[in-house]
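ok so i was messing around last nite and threw this chain in just to see what happens. nothing serious, just curious
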Amino acid sequence: MPESPAGWLSAAVFLISAASATVGILGDVVEATYAAAGLMWLYLALEAPRIPATQRLIALALMLVGGGLAWYGGRPGQAFLDASDGALLFLVLFGAVTFIQYPALRSPSMHHARQMILQQPPGRRYLAVSAAAHCLGALVNFAAMTLLATFLHQALETDVRRRMGAAMCRGFAIAATWSPFFVSMAVILSVMPDLNWSDIALPGFPLGLLVLAYGWLFDRATRGRRAKPRANAQAAEAVRPAAFGRLAVLAVMLVALVLAVAEGGSMPMPLAIFLVVPGFSLAWLLVLRKYEAAGDGSVPGFTEHIRAGLPGLRGEVLLFLAANVLGQGIASAVDPGTVEGAMQAAGLTGPAAIFALLIGMLACAAMAIHPLVLIVVLAHVLDPQRLGLTQQSLALIMACFWGLGAVLSPASGLTLFMARTLGEPQWRVAWVRNGAYSALGALVCGAYVSIFNAFFA
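result:
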């Protein structure tokens, strides 16, 4: 895709919008929030020619339907304002994550850790790759997939490449249950403002580990006859176990700083991440250049990465904004009691509601409806207490749905990335490679959330 002629302008508008949103939300300055929303729309207008036609059509359809429902409900203007405000937290979070990807991709410790993981013997390879994608992805988001994907070109057997591709996608996606750097967390916290990150992450972290273990067992049960192990061409390459220690220290420092800022300033998690991550990323890069001789990383390269990366978020920002418009429209026109009444009449309360929501939402994801659209809509039409659920339980359902639905949807960015990497159609990667995994995973997640809900209800 050709470089945007207004790349610097788009990046500058994006950053000013994020900064204005931070000032507006922290200082309760309405004018700054309105300015941030207006700049977000300007950013989308500048980048509109580079947004794929399919995404533009989907976003337009969502906005038209949402706008029509808001008009029917008597609040079209307010619905668009509220949707714009909701999209700002997403813009802030993904802008922050863009900063940390540059030093992460150039960190020798990252590359040594990756090499150790990928040299594991066949019996442990799936678990090692999925756990690596999970842990690295939780810290540096999609940069982890870029780091690990090179392994797929080294595995000569087609079946091995497919299995390892599935391991990466599944491990990465399920970090949505707890990572503060995932867009899923920003979405859930934006539609459930009474919760904070720890409310979801504390039960979500063991849930993520449970699904990782389930994915490994699922692979062992479905991979067929084990091929004879072959020599690893890179086995002789030196690796450094200390790389894991350095990365662990780095992760603890980053999360501790973010939590300290979030709790100390009583601010939403995406804002704390935006305030911490850019400076942390620059410091990481400077340390790399001084102590680890990361010669391909430079401050000019860092700024160029930001300039190129921020305009690249255009499709995601547009889709989330459109999903918010649809959610606001549904909230304006649909009585939540109608949906809850129908579920109660069908006996879908408590555990039955948990499984029904997970299965129904995954079916929608398989039909290429993006998870964020469904989460925004669900938050606007359901009161969890009337279905015998806590707010935390509903948030966990949303997080599980994101983690399982991202690999099941043929339209998700994760599926499209892996389809390009493997050279397969996106529908095959989504439905054939991950259909059964997501369906059975819904049962695993549903059981966990049911037990959690019963204990805390």
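not much to say yet. The chain has a mean pLDDT of 85.
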